[in-house]
What does this fold into?
Amino acid sequence: MPMLTAKEQSLLRALEPRAAQEGVEVVTVEVVGSRKAPTIRVYIDGPDGVSFDELSQAQGWIDGIVEELDPFPGAYMLEVSSPGIDRPLRTLEHFARFAGETAVVKMAAPVEGRSTFTGTLEGTEGDAVRLTCDGATVDLPYDGIKRAHLKGTVSFK
It folds into this structure.
């Protein structure tokens, strides 16, 4: 998982077994804000999305696991939410599952002179994410991806 810090990876590993028991997926974990009072954001999703009740219920067991880990000295905020329209992409499986969708992929180092790619996900090829941008298909090395998410579109009628 090239896109997560060591602390985010340890939180994710601690949460995944319980999430599987609860029938949800931990899409990703983010730690943001100051070191003295960080915010831990946990994004969860289910096969048919997640309801407000499921988010509230998950807050309880996620908070218990995070408390047990005690990842930060002092106070922290915990936010549990659905991934939303700009769903983060973290695993090769995520990139394969959302083939056909528009994604934004930021690389840790430039590929073909670019660091940011926006295009149609074509899935994966070995350890690479295949994306079609500007009419050309490019294979981006998974271990070089810094951050990626679906590019949500909303239409108003």
Summary: Residues 43 and 81 are 5 Å apart (CA to CA). The first helix runs from residue 6 to 22.
